[in-house]
Amino acid sequence: MMDEKVSIVVSTYNSESYIEQCMMSLKNQTYRNLEMVFVDDGSSDQTVKRCRELAEGDARIRIYPCTHRGVSATRNEGIGHCTGKYVTFVDSDDYVEPNLVERYIEAVHFFENNKKDVAFILCGMHFEVHVGTLEEDLKLVDSRDSFLTLPREKIGYLCWLKIFNFITNKLYDLETILQKDIQFSRDIQIGEDLRFNLDYLKAVSGELGVVNEPLYHYVRRTENSLSMVYYKNAISHTKEIYKELIGFAQDIENISNDDIMVLKAIYLADWTRRITALYDNHNGMFTVSEKHRITREEIRKDEYQQLLKEVHQGKKITTVRYLALRTKRFDLYFLLRRVYRLIRGKKGNGK
Fold first, then answer.
1. Nearest to residue 31, comparing CAs of 103, 81, 88?
2. For the chain, which end, N or C, has fewer CB atoms within 10 Å of the first or last residue's CB respectively?
3. DSSP-assigned letter for residue 230
């Protein structure tokens, strides 16, 4: 029963200082029929050398150094080298529980034996911030069942938990990916995981299979990870992917208006975060006047204000935040946000 080969794709980039934790968590999996495909995205440190040292003596590990093309390109490269029945993805700065793959395969057979049509299988996650204080364990569903399914209309719930968007906590059918030519988009820096999941779900039938345990450790390791970094075209890419997500959800039979409103609230929150990241950007990409002009234009757009009204009417945003954004003055919202964070920080420190 437990004989299917599982491929694990790991994209690495300047990961020398933490790749050992990642690779050892994969080498020590209780499920042994694995292949581990490490694709390096042109690291300038000793990542490749360290990978080769750690891989010595384990024929299941293959390492492919590449020129720097970005994480989407390296993941696509990794998929091309996979030979398993199933594939999962791990980021080089993360690590997994030793029974991750075993639980995935147990879930596969559980769903097969119970005649459940499942699109992909996902698990819960640990979220860790190594320079902060956050560490949380997430069980997806309040249930004693280890394996269960969720209907597709619950993607809003999973997005709210920040679980659906990731690819790293999911097991996919490799043949489907290859036959349907599902790839990571190389022309976007934001939402490539979400788009991959949407493309995959469009290509297959079935509900969402769940391993109701937190088995993947998502790790933030730098100060920059504690605040959102602004990327070129971040706002337009954010709007594009969320419109695609909401459009996909609206086509799901039996999805409720409340589930759609949850997705709209997430869209509004992420759009606002991207505007905030631009307003707070200090890397010289824009002058101060340009930043203020763009943020002012974004918050005053009819689409933004209409979305804000809908989310408020759906009771998915606090009144204070709603009123601050309704002023259409992002400088005022940014100031209030900073004051709120200072107050929350003092309360968190017991002051």
1. 103
2. C
3. P
